[in-house]
Amino acid sequence: MDELSQLSFRLALIASAGAALFYWIGIVTPARRLVGEGTGAGSIWQNMGRRANGLGRVWALAAAALLLITVVARWQAVDRAPWSNMWEFTVAFAAAAAVSYVLFERYVRAMSIVGAIVQPVVVALLAAAVLFFPSRIEPLVPALQSQWILAAHVGFMVVSYGALTVSFGASVLRLAQGTAGRFAQLPKANVLDDIAHASVIVGFPLLTLGIALGAYWANSAWGRYWDWDPKETASLVTWLIYGGYLHMRVQRSWRGTRAAVMLLIGYVAILFTYFGVNLWISGLHSYA
Amino acid sequence: MANTLDVGQYGRLPLRAVESGLRFLWSLLTSVRAAIFLVLALGTTMLVGVLVPQMPSAARASPELTAAWIRLQEEQFGILTDVFHRLGFFDVFHTWLFIGLLSWLVCAVSACTINRVPKLWRQTFQPPQRVSDGLFERSTAETVREAPDPAVVEMALRRKWFEVRREDRGNATYLFADRFAWTSLGTLLSHAALILFLVAVLVTKLDSFSTNLTIAEGGTSPVFPVSRDGQITVEVKEAVGMFDAQGRPLDYHSDLVLYRNGDEVKACTITVNDPCSLDGYRFHQAGFFGYGAQLRVRDIESGNVVYNEILALQRPLPSPDITILDRSGASLYEGTVPQTDLVEGTLGSLLTLPDHENSFWVGLRAGEDEAWTLVVFDPTQGAAGDRAFVPEGSDASVSGLTFHFKGVSSMPSLFLSDVPLPLASEVPNDEGQVLLSLENAIYGTQDVSAGDERLGGDTDGPSTLHLVGIAPATVRLAEGERVELGRYDYEFVGPRNFAGIGVRKDSGDDLVWLASGLFIGGLMLTLWIPRRRGWFRFRAGEMRIVSQGRARIEAADVIDEPI
Questions:
Q1: Which of B69, B147, B289, B480 has the fewest Cβ atoms surrounding its Cβ within 10 A?
Q2: B498: which strand partners?
Q3: CA–CA distance from B426 to each of B306, B423, B486, B487 (Å)?
């Protein structure tokens, strides 16, 4: 099963790179439509852009499916939830981002543009897994040999990070677009704002649940639900940023650019909580 | 005087000033901008706590320990250490700033919750069932030119769980549709849960018990430092640590027996994630230490045991594994030599060979490339005596004997000062500290195949206890072996493990889980099941929809519905 996991992982890397490429072609191509307008070339570029977006969707769907296969096959191979070391978590993170994106795209028409940001993030995560983290299967340290509660804790964190990746993609484009709307090929600022908000609405309760389950597990493993461990604190900072964002959005004057900046900070906090704290700061989570 | 407020010795304040002060405070507490600032300030403070190492509670116990811990940080932070210390960066979660921000958060959340109750209540239970015609004329209102029958729309809405009110007025028909209005109250639930959560944290601070016990196999320890009625005593029957071939831990568990007032009340096995409970106290597997040795000393004349301790050999001591051969090639010594003294930068000890006239100084010197060199010197020949520097894996000859340096082991060791010593007149000894080192120490259990981490030697022989300083030559005792020295009999009963047991009781636990459940429930209600509310107007064959909230009602919701 691990061979299948590794094979689908490599294919997923190719598929997500392909998706990123096509989404970018889709973003760039319609811009030329303005140049060719009135000459008959406009419709050619337009069709090309539409076709590139369609291909991007197909590749993104393939990447999401392959990453799901990777995770399930790894689960079978290791006989536990497959997010207990850096390689496994990074792949699961990428899988959650890819699947979240595909699900969002299913319901939101303007989403395919956001793929131009989300898919490169998926590629970067998978590349990081290849370059920096060993994928070999090793026995778990006793603290990680927990019941379902630990699997659920990390699982919810993974899914929430995946959903919030979509908000990152939308907020990057929102900042590029500006309030006035710099680029004709990008959706309107308020549409991007709504996409980002929708993904936070999905991700924030899951993030909260993940942190609460972590506290519950810490209480059973270490006898205390909170210890201001760097990882705990960093995840609380992340939670505060997204909580702050939801409150910001209540105020009309704080929507738009400020809210998008807040989401960028939130995603940096996610990456820091995951990579930074695990790799550079020692604490109770250092084994992960 | 009626417009002033008596504030005792400070005189009287004008009521208007008090009122405006309170209004300002209330507006500050309920301001969303202030809340965002508060969240950012808290986040920044916490970030300092993530990036800068935080002082462990043990180091806060005394100013001396604190100073020692701070000194350790100088290596990383250099001249900034003192500045960081003064700013409270090393203990940020106990600073007044952090506590103040948290207190402000409690007050702000409470004020916001109170402030929002009346409005939310009205919005939920007394919604405006009709909006002005002006709203239907705005561009935000959705317009359907060929309006369906209001009855059809009403039925479609009801089928989708909307509550619908209909009103015919003049030549127009109005519908008011409302669904899941009560989920708006979820936000109150979340904010109230946040307050409950902070109350739970306060309860934890005020009424919790926490202690860590380190108990050797076969040993007991009271839970409470001062004896009292209901005293709980913990006995560790067995402490087990299992490791794989690379020394990675696979499992830790301990078999415990719990006593209340001396009576056995519970026997249980604890693992890292599975504690045992008694009277609200939870016993957690908090640690494992495998380098222990039981040493028993008897007075030969009386037969009484005068010393019987399980000792934790916590100090790893680099020691050379050597073989000494005589001229005929017969082995005179094979094993690890514990290092007891430091002479001219070289760790070493005097090795007296049994049934041999010579003693040798055998030591270890670390090179700049971290390679070890064995230093052998024959002190009987004075300063000009024969000596050799032997690289790892090589041989050298000193005073006619061949010394083979196999490698370096880390021997778990301990300096003891309270063990009974024979009289110097009976057995010459150091009359001071005794060094205990364990050769062939096995960390963890042998039950796992290849799962032993064997330190202090490279042979498969039994664990051997070295006692240095108790007699002229190092005394080596295998498990169960004993030796008589002067008036005492020394026995190495065997290697023993230690279990680290964390004992916790927290009255805030249940409140924390209740608060977490309420918070998440409230959040999911608010964000995932949004209220949907809309007003419809049918007039002159046209339908107009005005919708409120995040989840809007659109014409497609009601027109595409098959009748």
A1: B480
A2: B216, B289
A3: 18, 5, 5, 8
Output the six-digit token pair for B379. 């002190």
**Average pLDDT of the segment spanning A46-58:** 81
- Mean per-residue pLDDT for B182-206? 88
| Chain B environment of A233 (Cβ under 8 Å) | 46, 49-50
Of all residues in chain A, the percent with pLDDT exceeding 90 is 49
As a whole number of angstroms, the distance between CA B178 and CA B123 comes to 11
Looking at the structure, do residues B279 and B367 belong to the same domain, yes or no?
A: no
Pick from B291, B315, B308: which is nearest to B495 by CA? B291
**Same-domain pairing of B436 and B392:** yes
The answer to whether residue B163 neighbours chain A at the CB level (below 8 Å) is: no
The secondary structure of residue B530, as a DSSP letter, is -
Instruction: Give the pLDDT confidence score for residue A37 in this predicted structure.
Output: 47
pLDDT tens readout for residues B65-85: 888 888 888 888 888 888 999
Query: Half-sphere exposure (CA, 13 Å, Cβ side) for B382?
Result: 1
The answer to whether B120 and B549 have CB atoms below 8 angstroms apart is no
Within this chain, do residues B350 and B268 fall inside the same structural domain, yes or no? no
Contacts of B51 in chain A (CB under 8 A): 281
Indicate the number of domains in chain B: 4
The CA distances from residue B133 to B30, B137, B138, B263, B540, in Å, are 34, 7, 9, 81, 14
B509 and B385, same structural domain?
A: no
- Judgement on whether residues B262 and B327 belong to the same structural domain of the protein: no
Mean pLDDT of B398-427: 84
Q: Does B476 lie in the same domain as B361?
A: yes
Q: What is the pLDDT of residue A43?
A: 62
Question: Residue B279 sits in which domain range?
Answer: 208-290+502-513
The average pLDDT across B343-370 equals 75
Q: Report the sign of the C-alpha dihedral through residues B300, B301, B307, B310, in that order.
A: positive
Residues β-bridged to residue B401:
B398
| Minimum distance, in Å, between the CA of residue B164 and any CA atom of chain A | 27
What's the token pair of residue B555?
């014409």
Q: With CB atoms and an 8 Å threshold, state whether A223 touches B286.
A: yes
Residue A232: CB partners within 8 Å, gap ≥ 6? A214, A215, A218, A226, A284, A285
How many alpha carbons fall within 13 Å on the CB side of residue A101?
37
- Helix-, strand-, coil-residue percentages of chain B, each rounded to 5: 30, 40, 30
Structure tokens at A259: 């809210």
Instruction: Please give the Cα distance from A101 to A85 (Å, whole number).
Output: 24
Q: Which of B31, B38, B39 is most worth mutating to test chain A (most A CB atoms within 10 A of its CB)?
A: B39
For residue B148, the 8-state DSSP code is: P
Q: What is the pLDDT of residue B463?
A: 81
Report helix, strand and coil shares of chain A as percent, to nearest 5.
80, 0, 20
Q: Does B359 lie in the same domain as B309?
A: yes
> What span, in angstroms and rounded, lies between the C-alpha atoms of B192 and B519?
8
- Token pair for B439: 């050769």
Q: Is the pLDDT of residue A284 over 80?
A: no
User: Radius of gyration (Cα) for chain B, nearest Å?
Assistant: 39
Distances (CA, A) of A73 to A68, A69, A90, A144: 8, 6, 15, 20
B120 interface with A at CB cutoff 8 Å = no
Asked if residue B194 belongs to a domain, the reply is: no
- Whether B549 and B531 have beta carbons less than 8 Å apart is answered as yes
Q: Is the pLDDT reported for residue A261 higher than 90?
A: yes
Query: Model's pTM, two decimal places?
Result: 0.79
DSSP-derived secondary structure for B460-479: -S--EEEEESSSSS-EEEET
Residue B191 in domain: no
In a domain, B199, yes or no: no
Which of A156, A228, A249 should we substitute to test contact with B (largest number of B Cβ atoms within 10 Å)?
A228
